[in-house]
Amino acid sequence: EVLTALSDLRAKRYAVYLGADLSKYGLDRPETVISIATDDGQETSLLISAKGPAKGGRYACVSAKNDRVFVIKNEDLPKLQKKPGDFQKAG
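Now predict its structure.
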């Protein structure tokens, strides 16, 4: 589910395309971090802030290009913000 949500994720818009100060957007201490590692050991993380712009959404960045801050739509957040218990089968 989370991997599908990540592959379908599109930025609503960029807040800053280059040279962003992550602390200004709450990304120096993100609320959610999703990390993916490939078989060859390369790791990339999506950082999602606890805050967002007044028009809605949340600020986010990708660790590989952490000077670019974009906005994720509100409707995409529940697909990405999962807890370990969300992956347990009901029994």
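Residues 2-8 form the longest helix (7 residues).
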